[in-house]
Amino acid sequence: AQSVAQPEDQVNVAEGNPLTVKCTYSVSGNPYLFWYVQYPNRGLQFLLKYITGDNLVKGSYGFEAEFNKSQTSFHLKKPSALVSDSALYFCAVRPHGSSNTGKLIFGQGTTLQVKP
Amino acid sequence: NAGVMQNPRHLVRRRGQEARLRCSPMKGHSHVYWYRQLPEEGLKFMVYLQKENIIDESGMPKERFSAEFPKEGPSILRIQQVVRGDSAAYFCASSVQGAAGNEQFFGPGTRLTVL
Q: Is the Cβ–Cβ distance between A33 and A52 less than 8 Å?
C-alpha cells in the first residue's frame, strides 16, 4: 500500500538552531513529493516540491528538503529556526504513473515548536 | 488573485441533517480535490473532480456523500443525514492541471460539527 510516514509527532527546537522534520514514503514508481505547512485554523500552505533533478529542493520561508531515493526519505530542513515557524507540517506524496489521478497521500503531520 | 475560497468556514448540523460545503477554485484552475481531516489526523483524499466530471472518488464513503463541480459555480460536497463521525475539517484544493507535479492550493477549510 502507498503511504507516507512522519515518525515524529512533535519536534522541539530552540530559535536560531537548525531544524529537521522527517518524512519517509512508500510508493510504486517515481513519486512527486511535497511539503505543506498548516497554521491553527487555517488551510495548508505549499512550501516546496520535488519532481526531478537536484535532490536538494529549496522552498518558501528559507525551508529546503532533501530527496533520498535509496532511503525513500524527503526530510524538511531549515538552517535557522524562527519562533514563527511553529506550526503543523505535512509531508505528501503523489504517485507518478498511469494510474495516478493526482490525489495526494499525506503523512499524519509533525508539530514543530520553536522556543525563544 | 484570490485564493481558493470555501464557505461556510464553520458549519453546525444536528444528526440527520444535510451539510453542503462549497469550494471556489483559484482563477484559472479547473481541477478540484476534496480532503477530510479528522481530529489529530492528517488529510485523507476524498474525491477529485474536473468541470462536470468526477475523475476519482476512491476516497468517498459509499453512502451519504456526494460531490459535484458544475460547469458554472462552485464545487459542492454534500453530506446527507450527517452523523457525529462526520465532524471534521473539510479542505478543498485546486490545481491548474491534475497530472504531473502541479502543486495543489488549499482553501481555509470548512469545519463541520455534528451535534
A: no
